[in-house]
Design a protein that fits this description.
This protein has 417 residues and is mainly alpha-helical. It has one domain. Helices cover 67% and strands 1% of the residues. It has a two-stranded parallel ribbon with strand order 1-2.
Length: 417
């Protein structure tokens, strides 16, 4: 019943008089329910989907580069920036995963339910990394020689760890996250306080958290350790409180925080290059400044990538039109896109290799993303970007289809994908 209808009712109606106070209470509850429904905020914030979609598209550039055989950050400016632009992907994934967890927890209003969701989804991601995603990368089941602890592995375990933090206040989670990021090197020294037998027995577990020079599990390649990424996810979780503010206020804070982080990176990065001992690096100053350590992600690397990402969150609040719609579609189904895009790129690489070489050479990709393409057979940048554009264009249609299905089944098992 609308408020306008209630306001125009005939107050001399005998039925109203007979109903008395009970009728008034019913009408009051109806008004309140209507008001609550109208004022309830949307469960999705478009800027998050747009930014996540943008980094999903950028990620495909790097993975096509992997199958092309071109080295990461190679000698030319074209290859360097082809790799550098994709550095924004992993930080944005971890950060926005934390933000989405906060928003989902606010919707649930149930901390145990949120913790259960994070543990369940985290384990699902780890299983997918070891099964579906590994097969999409390699097209083989040879686990005896190669297993990858990649970005989805990292995100999954970080969600499990975040489930233990969500019981704390939002501010505390953010402070813990910042401490992990900025004091991460401590985790590389901690194993030294334990006796040698303990380090030998449990060192392989520690190496999944932070590199400490201990013995690793043979056949497992650790691409992403959990520290500092759990810190990034925790900071993203605390950042979720900002994303619940009114649009104008959150735009202002996104621009302020993101710009500040970027300025700190530029200042600190330049100071490091000027004052630290010089190494045999003859590259241009800009290349040295932008080539920050990713494995594990250094403080400067995270400032360099998260600063502009947060600025983009503010800018994306005003984005409309078809391009924003495409990015939103990708951003609403990130896990589906991730699994499908690796499969599509791998198949495209085999087709391109067959057309160029007369054979597909699947052995070159048997340990992807660490491919073994001989230098004479590597692709050029024009071919790399052509394949990238075709793959992304193809992926839009299944992603749009899956986004519609997921929207109709918000509380089913599809919410974990």
């Amino acid at each position: 019943m609308s408020e306008g209808f209630l306001a125009n009712r005939n107050t001399l109606d005998p039925s109203v008089t007979l109903a008395g106070t009970t009728g008034d209470r019913k009408e009051s509850r109806t008004k309140e329910a209507t008001k609550t429904t109208v004022e309830r905020p949307s469960s999705r914030i478009s800027s998050i989907d747009i930014v996540r979609g943008a980094v999903m598209v950028l990620m495909a550039i790097d993975h096509v580069r992997v199958y092309s055989g071109l080295p990461a950050g190679g000698p030319t400016a074209g290859i360097f920036f082809t790799r550098w632009i994709t550095h924004f992907c992993a930080p944005a994934f971890a950060f926005l995963a934390g933000t989405s967890a906060f928003l989902y927890g606010r919707k649930l209003a149930n901390t145990p339910g949120l913790a259960k969701y994070l543990v369940t989804r985290g384990i699902v991601l780890v299983i997918l990394e070891l099964t579906v995603i590994r097969f999409a990368w390699t097209f083989n089941f040879d686990y005896t020689h190669f297993v990858l602890a990649g970005v989805i592995w990292m995100l999954g375990w970080c969600m499990v760890l975040l489930a233990g933090l969500v019981w704390l206040s939002t501010k505390t989670v953010g402070v813990i996250g910042l401490a992990i990021i900025f004091f991460q090197q401590i985790f590389g020294e901690l194993p030294q306080v334990f006796p040698e037998p303990v380090r030998s027995a449990f060192g392989w577990i520690w190496e999944f958290f932070y590199p400490a020079g201990l013995k690793q599990w043979e056949s497992v390649t650790i691409l992403y350790v959990l520290i500092p990424w759990i810190g990034v996810m925790a900071v993203g979780y605390a950042f979720g409180a900002i994303m619940t503010l009114k649009p104008d206020e959150r735009i202002r804070l996104c621009l302020k925080i993101g710009t500040s982080a970027t300025v700190i990176f530029l200042t600190a990065g330049c100071l490091v290059l000027f004052f630290l001992p010089k190494h045999a690096d003859n590259r241009p100053f800009l290349f040295q400044l932008l080539d920050q350590k990713k494995y594990p992600a250094s403080q400067l690397y995270l400032l360099m990538t998260l600063g502009p990402t947060i600025v983009l969150l503010g800018v994306a609040e005003r984005m409309r039109g078809w391009f924003a719609g495409i990015l939103t579609t990708f951003g609403r189904v990130p896990m589906f896109y991730y699994m499908l895009h690796i499969l599509a790129i791998h198949i495209a690489a085999l087709i391109v290799t067959f057309l160029r070489e007369g054979r597909a050479y699947p052995v070159w990709y048997a340990t992807a993303p660490f491919t073994q393409v001989p230098p004479p057979h590597r692709w050029g940048l024009p071919l790399l970007y052509l394949v990238f554009a075709l793959v992304v264009a193809f992926l839009y249609f299944p992603c749009r289809w899956f986004a519609k299905i997921k929207a109709r089944h918000r509380e089913g098992w599809l919410r974990y994908i």
